[in-house]
Amino acid sequence: MLNSEMIRSQFPQIGHKTNGHEIYYFDSAATTLKHKNVVMATERYYQEECANVHRGIHTLSEISTDRYEQTREKLHHFINSQGREEIIFTKGTTESINLVAKSWGESNLGPGDEIIISHMEHHSNIVPWQMLCEKTGALLKIIPITDKGDIDLDAYTNLLSTKTKIVSCVWASNTLGTINPIEKMISMAHEKGAVFLVDAAQASSHIKIDVQKLQCDFLALSAHKMFGPTGVGLLYGKKDILNQMPPLFGGGDMIDTVTFEKTTYNVLPQKFEAGTPNIAGVIAWAEAIDFIQATGVENIAEYEAELLAFATEELTQVPGLRIIGTSKNKVAVISFVIEDLHPHDIATLANKYHIAVRTGHHCTQPIMERMKVPATVRASFSVYNTQEEIIKLKEALIKITELFG
Q1: Is 133 a catalytic residue?
Q2: Which of 50, 133, 169, 363 is catalytic?
Q3: Is a pLDDT exceeding 80 seen at residue 108?
Q4: Is the N or the C terminus of the chain less surrounded, counting Cβ atoms within 10 Å?
């Protein structure tokens, strides 16, 4: 069992008062709070060890490069890739997906080829594929979802064909909370000769990732969804596929030789890492990985499952509240509407009670259309939340419904 108070003591924002009040934070699906060691590592880099990586032989550059590459090594083990060269640093999940769409997609797709995504995707896993279709003449196919918010696997089976070149699907929905049967979906895609990209942004701190077990071809995630800094993430790709892909960005560090007649490119992973990266962010990310591994992904998932069950029971006591996304297999996300109240009004008034929830379409407008709602309020929980905080949320929502009569 996790020691809740010990966990909470490791997040400086918890207990901090903003405008004289403690904020009850239920927006971890947007970004998690940052572990104290992440904050300290960021500060240490800028105050004591600031230097560029890979390009210097002086002491500070060697220290920064060593710490930077230690994070790559930790991520290699965290997701169980075959080698550290399969870990490409990016700005986050969005850039990782775009990298695959532009580099792999433009090299491998043409008119009549098909791309499959699901109806529950984040916009960052929709728009890049639409742009690729416009450029190549490929077709975009959509896997429907059920009223509960589950993938329709029968429909997915029917969509797959020899024309399918890539399937890109979210592992855990940021809006519905649904955890998709991603390993089975990957196997089904491979049977048709398609490659598979996993959007693991929402899964990274809740679900154990083993890319060799999954056999996915690509996987994308973001540090800021797993207690780490914003503006940094990774793209995992199988080495053989990455070696065949052209670099997306040109510049420093991604080259081997440069002449005005011809440029040759660096080996993996540097081939895809042009320019000065987010050095502080990458270095600090290592501390978030250490926290997750020390706490245990399975322990985090178990604790959050208890929070989700408790929150589901408590929030359904709020008059007129209806949960959107009722899959039996979910991460700790509850999206909801309240009869006759606009979600924006709910979130605005909740803020008056020092409750931080998300409202809107959550970058998943097709889900809103599918569920026939203009928007939802989203409460998302993490390992630092408590049942007492959830009761505060319920009480605030009840007061809001009473205010509107």
Answers
A1: no
A2: 363
A3: yes
A4: C
Architecture category of domain 39-293 in CATH: 3-Layer(aba) Sandwich (3.40)
- Who contacts 262 (Cβ-Cβ below 8 Å, separation ≥6)? none
- Give the residue among 51, 134, 140, 131 at the shortest CA–CA distance from 99: 131
Using DSSP, how many helices (H) and how many strands (E) does the chain show? 15, 17
Read off the pLDDT of residues 116-165 as tens digits, 9 standing for 90 and up. 999 999 999 999 999 999 999 999 999 999 999 999 999 999 999 999 99
**Interval 261-282: pLDDT, tens:** 888 888 899 999 999 999 999 9
pLDDT number for residue 258: 83
Delimiting residues of CATH 3.40.640.10 domain(s) in the chain: 39-293
> Would you place residue 254 in the very low, low, confident or very high pLDDT band (cuts 50, 70, 90)?
confident
Pairing of strands 376-380, 333-338: antiparallel
Q: Which two tokens stand for residue 182?
A: 């991603």
Residues in the chain, total: 405
- Model pLDDT for residues 277-330, shown as the tens digit of each residue: 999 999 999 999 999 999 999 999 999 999 999 999 999 999 999 999 999 999
Phi and psi angles of residue 169, each rounded to the nearest 5 degrees, phi first: -145, 145
Residue corresponding to tokens 């995504």: 117
CA-CA distances (angstroms) from residue 119 to 132, 141, 259, 370?
18, 10, 47, 8
Instruction: Decide which of 3.40.250.10, 3.40.50.880, 3.40.50.450, 3.90.1150.10 is the CATH code for 4-27+296-403.
Output: 3.90.1150.10
Query: What is d(CA 44, CA 38) in angstroms, rounded to the nearest whole number?
Result: 10
User: Token pair of 37, please?
Assistant: 């060691």
Provide the H-helix boundaries in 137-278: 153-159, 182-191, 211-214, 239-244
pTM exceeds cut of 0.90: yes
**233 DSSP β-pair partners:** 90, 222
Q: Tokens representing 8?
A: 């909470």
Question: Could you tell me if 390 and 310 are in contact, meaning their C-beta atoms sit under 8 angstroms apart?
Answer: yes
Q: Is the pLDDT of residue 259 over 90?
A: no
